[in-house]
Design goal:
Length: about 160
């Protein structure tokens, strides 16, 4: 089946995003309740602002089933933040993530001078995508916010980068 993309809120999408992020990171690096609570509360805070200028909630769908998501959150202190980028593991490696990221960056290039994001070093495929699309690492440190100590990185991308 072909993938379609939707912008904005769809009933149930916040729960799907929270569940998919939490299950993925629990399996990968043993993140648990603190991580799930932070994702859920962040999405609850963002959702009412999703349709405001400069914000984007973009999801990928296989028919009626979500398979990926990405957010551009203008509500953070400038610059805007790329958040909650996740693809269902069954759909990874099928260019869903690349397409989500490219669409989000096209949107961001219209609305923002700069984007930033955080990630962990274990996410090789995501880091590769960020590098290919013009992000550069600006900080790196150990962090135990989610339980196990992880090497967290901050990445930044200026609008002037052409993809």
């Amino acid at each position: 089946m072909s993938i379609s993309f939707r912008t904005g809120y769809t009933p149930g999408i916040l729960g799907w995003m929270t569940q998919t992020q939490t299950q993925y990171y629990a399996a990968l690096v043993n993140f648990g309740l603190p991580f799930e609570c932070t994702v859920a509360s962040g999405l609850v805070e963002f959702a009412p602002r999703a349709s405001e200028p400069g914000n984007l909630l973009l999801t990928a769908w296989d028919g009626t089933h979500p398979v990926g998501s990405i957010v551009i959150d203008a509500g953070t202190t400038p610059p805007a933040r790329l958040r909650w980028f996740v693809v269902d593991p069954a759909w990874q490696g099928r260019r869903v993530g690349t397409t989500l990221l490219r669409q989000a960056l096209s949107f961001a290039d219209i609305h923002h001078e700069r984007l930033w994001l955080t990630t962990i070093v274990e996410l090789d495929a995501a880091i590769h995508l960020y590098q290919v699309h013009g992000f550069r690492m600006t900080a790196e440190h150990d962090d135990a916010t989610w339980g196990p100590v992880m090497r967290e990185q901050t990445w930044q991308r200026d609008r002037t980068h052409q993809i």
